[in-house]
Amino acid sequence: MSNVFRNIPSVNELLDSPPLRQLVDRANRSTVIAGVRRFLDNLRTEIQTATADIKVPTPGELAERIAHWIATEATPNLRPTINATGILLHTGLGRAPLAESAIQAIGDVARGYSSLEIDVPTGERSQRVRDVAEALAHLTGAEAATVVNNNAAATMLTLAALAGGREVIVSRGQLVEIGGSYRLPEVMEVSGAKLREVGTTNKTRIDDYRAAIGPNTAALMRVHSSNFAIVGFTEQASLAELVALSARHQLPLIDDIGSGALEDLAAYGIVGEPLVADSIRAGADVVLFSGDKLLGGPQCGIILGRKPLVQKIMQHPLSRALRVDKLTLAALLETLRLHQDRQTAERSLPLLSLLSTSVANLQQRAQRLAPQLSACAAIKSAEPVESQAYLGGGSVPSQGIASWAIALEPDRGSVDELAASLRSGTPAVFGRISKDRLLLDLRAVFPRDDMRLVEAVQQIQDRTSGEPELGDSDPNVS
Ligand SMILES: *Cc1c(COP(=O)(O)O)cnc(C)c1O
Known about the structure:
Elements: H1 2-6, H2 11-15, H3 18-26, H4 29-49, H5 59-71, E1 81-83, H6 100-111, H7 130-140, E2 144-148, H8 151-163, E3 167-171, E4 177-178, E5 182-183, H9 184-191, E6 194-198, H10 206-212, E7 217-223, H11 239-248, E8 253-258, H12 276-282, E9 286-290, E10 301-305, H13 307-315, H14 318-321, H15 326-338, H16 342-348, H17 350-356, H18 359-374, E11 379-389, E12 401-410, H19 415-423, E13 428-430, E14 432-434, E15 437-441, H20 450-465
Parallel strand pairs: 1-13, 3-6, 3-7, 7-8, 8-9
Antiparallel strand pairs: 2-10, 4-5, 9-10, 11-12, 12-15, 14-15
Helix pairs in contact: 3-5, 4-5, 6-15, 7-15, 8-9, 8-13, 16-17, 18-20
This protein binds pyridoxal-5'-phosphate (PLP).
């Protein structure tokens, strides 16, 4: 048996082999080293426990096997991807990429200890959301602010704290579902508040709200129709009307703007998104939105509004269950700092730099990449085409953003198979299928990733034709 062990090459020898050297170029070195070690451990265990003799493959064969195993089985599902779908805030692809300085801020608090809940000068206990709340108040004009895990949490907590056991009046035209698992009526139910629907799907007037107010009413709520539009004969009560009515009855008005913007996005061709500051200025008592939608920051839900209401929300027991950790706070604080002025925001926040990339730039890149892609063995044709990108994440579904894509036709096999091969490559690339072609939309692709996109397509043929038949590559089974 000891002879058999001697036949196993060392980790360094294996790393020097062509298949593993190639993998190190594409993936990261420590991942490959860890993968080789795990494979060899499994192999040794298998040899020790086997009843019959096991033949160790030749070093070349072994290297091929390990490279294949790392690229397929040993890679976790969660991995960095290139987003060529044209949807900038793709919930499935993790919504907003963070700014470099926000990533740095996460590293700084993650590496060691931090003064998360301690007031530095006095050494006394302090609020973990303090800095973020100040920055939010400064940016939006709100009296007070806090932050929780996401906007679903912000909505649930606000309703539980301000309206538990009582009624909240909402228009039938605003009972939104976001991404399948978020449904306002269901969130309201678990919060303990009672939904009081008024009006109809397409028309709700201020008188409908007025008629529904009674002794059991706790609040009025407006919900931004983030991901749908009702067209034709429609009417919704205005924010000003809702503010006036709720003030007259001394009821809080909760404004869930969901994907609301911090600054006007008209320059990027996106109009009609509610602005957080407008809502505060108009007199909404509590404003809710997602921190990873138009803020371009980490996942979180932001609650802004009048001080006594925000305090009541923060004191509710659910607040502890929904609180954010130091990593989120560090990234959010830095993201808010970058939003202090427009130019810094555009230069440093990936979401805004992607949005502000000129159409001419995307066209040039598509035209430069197309011939390189059509030269790949797996590709029959690659054509630069005009495209429509979308903000996504439940935001502004009806407004396309001008973009360019490269439309790919596979050399053989179906377009679905081509899409699947690209998804499982290194780097993983996600495109969008349209009319039997795979579109690689450049709106959400960082220029630094253009060449990696080409390399990912080049690799497809390598993977399907360049490797020996391996059968089952799990060393515990083979
Ligand atoms: C996106 C959205 C939500 C859910 O926000 P998450 O941060 O994904 O939890 C709730 N309400 C509205 C109006 C939204 O747009």
